[in-house]
Write a structure and sequence with these properties.
Layout: H1 4-18, E1 25-28, E2 42-49, E3 52-58, E4 68-74, E5 80-84, E6 98-104, E7 107-112, E8 115-121, H2 126-129, H3 143-151, H4 158-163, H5 173-183, H6 197-211, E9 247-251, E10 254-258
Helix pairs in contact: 3-6, 5-6
Length: about 280
């Protein structure tokens, strides 16, 4: 699943390809925008907000009473944007997954399997992203506010809370697992029992920032295949610190990886089933 740094990188790719260009054509392949034509619109900038992509546009005066618009998209689990040179083969994904094509004189941007695709006035962006917590990679990152939001739900598990984009925007499953391993905290620990929420938040921001600008995500410092993570994706493999087998369990609607020795805490396999009397 794309994490905050991946979405940030994608926004930069689109910005380099399209910013300042007047679109020469557009093709939307979703029902709600099927008749939309952005020919002649100018791309102002491409930005990210957590896991949301915001392509900001200027409409020609004769085409719209509102000049500034935003094309919003969410990558969720499997969405992607790619930028191609004119005439280059679009080979990133199967053609039936294409949801939008934006053509400019020097580039073509293709969006695959995008979710929540919407065109709205830029002044109304907050209706789609205003609920998000502080953006770990945003210019207005506010660590204290992220900690305050987390601390407001002391009974929630830290594993689920880090994925809740209303608390802080940008953490996905990979960074959740890696941050908690590095902090020595079990994913099932209630927020009220986490000894240093500020330290956990600070580490999450550092890890995302360290991977910003590259596509290979690493929390170990190594970019070699198979060495980029401590616990994520390493079920049954030995912990890099203590040798204990890494475990994988469901937590909420997602899976989590952790080392039961380095991250002591409640054992989900031994927890009582709340559906049983």
């Amino acid at each position: 699943m794309p994490e905050g740094d991946t979405v940030w990188n994608t926004a930069r790719v689109l910005h380099r390809a399209l910013a300042g260009a007047a679109l020469t054509g557009s093709d939307f392949r979703v029902p709600q925008l099927a008749t939309t034509d952005l020919t002649g619109w100018t791309v102002r900038e491409s930005a990210s907000r957590g896991k949301h992509l915001l392509l900001r546009l200027a409409a020609p005066e004769e085409r719209s009473d509102v000049r500034h618009w935003t094309l919003h998209s969410h990558l969720r689990m499997d969405g992607a944007w790619r930028a191609y040179a004119p005439g280059e083969r679009w080979g990133a994904r199967p053609a039936h997954l294409i949801r939008v094509v934006l053509r400019a004189p020097s580039a073509v941007a293709v969006g695959y399997h995008l979710h929540e695709l919407a065109l709205l006035p830029t002044a109304e962006e907050e209706s789609l992203v205003g609920h998000l917590g502080p953006d770990l990679l945003g210019p207005d990152w506010d660590a204290a506010e992220a900690v305050r939001r987390l601390a407001a739900h002391p009974e929630a598990t830290i594993g689920e809370a880090l994925l809740d984009q209303r608390n802080l925007a940008g953490v996905g499953n990979l960074y959740k697992c890696e941050v908690l391993f590095l902090r020595g905290v079990s994913p099932w620990t209630p927020l009220g029992a986490v000894p240093d929420l500020a330290g956990t938040v600070a580490l999450a921001q550092r890890l995302l920032a360290a991977n910003r600008g590259r596509w290979t995500q690493s929390t170990t410092g190594s970019l070699h295949r198979g060495r980029t993570s401590y616990v994520y994706g390493r079920r049954a493999q030995p912990c890099r610190r203590c040798g204990t087998a890494i475990r994988k369990e469901e937590l909420g609607e997602r899976v989590t990886y952790w080392c039961p020795r380095c991250q002591p805490g409640p054992d989900p396999a031994q927890s009582p089933d709340p559906t049983q009397p």
